[in-house]
Write a sequence for this structure.
């Protein structure tokens, strides 16, 4: 049994545009075991500047177990592939390895929206939701998550579809609402346009809206006019770090399955010869 499989306590960390938040999480019930700790995101938020803060987080909780971390970009097998709202120098960085070196602990890094989605599906608005579930986190950017019968399709990045001739998240994120001082109603109209495009593309059965904006659901949900049922996320601020902790377990299981499948295929091939 590996270190990760043995534990149901994982330190969850969420790297965000303004803060890096963390707390130990019980992955069986999604509850935080201690009050969360927040460190302001440095500027520039380069790998060299962020890695010591992950070590500080570990030190703050005197943590010596597994760590799961949400990152605001595409992460494939621990390697960052995009960095829309964080420093470009992350691209092609092996973040798992970087944080392992900084902390001395096994760290599983995943896309931040995927992490938040896992938490919502297990403990929040998506419990028992089958079919195609689309979840988006609306904050500095628009993070997107897709579940098919409860299974995550990672790194979907549908916040970057083209809308009104521009990157959708530049048009309809919470950051755009603040920067352009839009009223909630005006912003809701833009967000509705965004969700209409998503509806056209993937025809989901349920849409869950998470991220910073989800705390203000009553101010914009009434303006949304879609075929699909839309509900606010329930875990609010903590979905990112709770999900990062869950993802550490989830990814470990997938990797294990992958290795097992490869091994079995190899054995079959050898037998055939
Ligand atoms: C990134 C996504 C991320 C989202 C929320 C987007 O700009 O491309 O990977 O999930 O912001 O942080």
């Amino acid at each position: 049994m590996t270190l990760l499989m043995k534990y149901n306590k994982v330190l969850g960390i969420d790297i965000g545009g303004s803060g890096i938040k963390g707390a130990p999480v019980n992955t069986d019930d999604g509850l935080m075991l201690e009050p969360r700790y927040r460190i302001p995101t440095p500027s520039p938020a380069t790998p060299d500047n962020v890695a010591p803060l992950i070590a500080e987080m570990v030190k703050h909780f005197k943590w010596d177990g597994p760590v799961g971390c949400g990152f605001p970009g595409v992460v494939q097998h621990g390697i960052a592939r995009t960095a829309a709202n964080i420093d470009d120098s992350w691209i092609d960085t092996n973040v798992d390895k970087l944080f392992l070196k900084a902390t001395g602990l096994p760290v599983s890094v995943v896309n931040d929206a995927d992490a938040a989605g896992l938490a919502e599906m297990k403990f929040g608005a998506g419990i028992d939701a089958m079919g195609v579930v689309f979840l988006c986190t609306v904050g500095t950017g628009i993070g997107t998550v897709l579940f098919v019968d409860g299974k995550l399709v990672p790194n979907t990045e549908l916040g970057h579809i083209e809308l009104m001739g521009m990157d959708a998240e530049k048009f309809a994120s919470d950051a755009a609402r603040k920067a352009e001082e839009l009223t909630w109603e005006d912003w809701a109209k833009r967000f509705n346009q965004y969700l209409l495009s998503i509806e056209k593309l993937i025809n989901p059965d349920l849409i869950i809206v998470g991220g910073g904006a989800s705390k203000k659901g009553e101010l914009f949900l009434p303006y949304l006019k879609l075929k699909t049922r839309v509900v606010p996320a329930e875990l609010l601020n903590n979905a990112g770090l709770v999900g990062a902790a869950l993802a550490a377990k989830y990814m470990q299981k997938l990797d294990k399955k992958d290795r097992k499948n490869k091994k079995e295929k190899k054995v079959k091939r050898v037998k055939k010869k």
